[in-house]
Inverse folding.
């Protein structure tokens, strides 16, 4: 097991609104209960099943143009052509995919609020590391902020 493996896998069926909603709600509960991070390492990864096997979400599972615009630092997993399990891009990929459905916008906003609440509650980046280069929530919140401007969410 690698130092930064995500030990909590949340399965999601893409393009299935109920599955996406359920995955977001499960993530919200993990954030509320402080179970999303253990030993100062983020534990959550959204995954999909392909032919009965657990697979990482890929850029192609969301709005690739939108995600490409989020490559704000060289170490971002979003620079990878193929994303492997435990590579920490699933949060922003799921947000991007979910925001394609008007019915899920509020659920994404609620999840973003839980990320912010977690951050405020802990007030310490040590409790937000995904790996040795990234903290969770940044790309997802940046994506939502960019989308909010065009969607007039707030």
């Amino acid at each position: 097991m690698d130092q930064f493996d995500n030990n909590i896998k949340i399965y999601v069926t893409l393009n299935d609104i109920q599955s996406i909603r359920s995955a977001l709600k499960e993530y919200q509960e993990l954030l509320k209960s402080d179970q999303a991070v253990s030993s100062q390492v983020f534990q959550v990864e959204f995954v999909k099943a392909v032919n009965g096997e657990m697979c990482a979400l890929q850029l192609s599972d969301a709005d690739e143009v939108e995600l490409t615009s989020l490559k704000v630092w060289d170490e971002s997993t979003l620079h990878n052509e193929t994303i492997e399990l435990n590579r920490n891009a699933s949060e922003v990929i799921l947000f991007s995919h979910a925001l394609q459905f008007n019915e899920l916008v509020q659920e994404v906003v609620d999840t973003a609020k839980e990320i912010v609440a977690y951050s405020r509650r802990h007030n310490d980046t040590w409790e937000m590391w995904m790996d040795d280069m990234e903290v969770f929530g940044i790309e997802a919140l940046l994506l939502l902020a960019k989308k909010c401007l065009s969607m007039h969410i707030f």
Remarks:
- Helices lie at 17-32, 64-68, 90-98, 105-122, 138-151.
- The chain has a mean pLDDT of 83.
- Residues 125 and 135 are 7 Å apart (CA to CA).
- The two ends are 41 Å apart (CA to CA).
